[in-house]
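G., the chain you wanted modeled:
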Amino acid sequence: MSHRLPPLNALRAFEAAARHLSFNKAALELHVTQAAISHQIKALEHYLEVQLFRRLNRSLQLTEEAQVCLPKLREGFDCLAEAVEDVRAQNKRGRLTVSVAPSFAAKWLVPRLHRFAAAHPDIDMWISASMELIDKQNPHNMKPLDFRKGNVDVAIRFGWGKYPGFRADKLLEVSMIPMCSPRLLEGKHPLRKPEDLRHHTLLHDDTLDYDELWPGWSMWLNYAGVTGVDASHGQHFSHAVLALEAAIEEQGVVLSLRNLAAADLMAGRLVTPFPLSISLNFAYYVVCPTATADRPKIAVFREWLLEEAHQDERTT
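Predicted structure as tokens:
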């Protein structure tokens, strides 16, 4: 069913004038004359057969009719703006923007991207390294990730996987385990058993240290039955990639995610001196708004990520 609507210019003039309560300011915003705004308002009032403004000596006042329709009108303009931005985002030739935590990008995603690029040369990747959370109501008051206006198409996030309004596919289950340079297995104080950690610097991956469920050295040492080691002492890093690099450079022993260090472990740059690991309830997820989840470039990237993760499981 079609609806006959007033001219869009008249509605824009009314919304701007109502927001500023000034024809002059509305004219400046819309780059027209004040007379043009006044003409559009009069035409709209004639069309609607209601008065929209009370014209006082030096100010404007909205009538009750105007106050009733203004919120819906603003909502409509917001929807139009989002629709236009969606079209622009879709029209960006093959561009796919992926938001991913810096350490995961450096250690897992980027080393594999050449395979995706070879299989899908028509898609231009844009990797945005960020730690913004998906949920606007997150308990830590961190800035939420904005999927609108084409800024982000897909996010890879570490968490519980519960994101209302979003599709979330589990990418990787994770565990934390001590890792170090193979050179630390020998020398003056070789790492042979967990108690030997008292002779070495503990490296701390504090990526999610704001979350009380994030395990650290204290938890691992407790599981291993080790006493006499100060679990808080050592070097602390805000990103896992920094802690792992410190371990590679023989600066100590890091407790971090095995998945992030997979390439370093395979290449022998790192080793796991002890088999005890801590399995986490968290996991890495591929996340995108439900409304855009089936767009071709998003779907093909998601399937590629899941296949890469499946290959990881086969080789580890």
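Residues 136-142 have pLDDT under 50 and may be disordered.

Shout if anything looks off.
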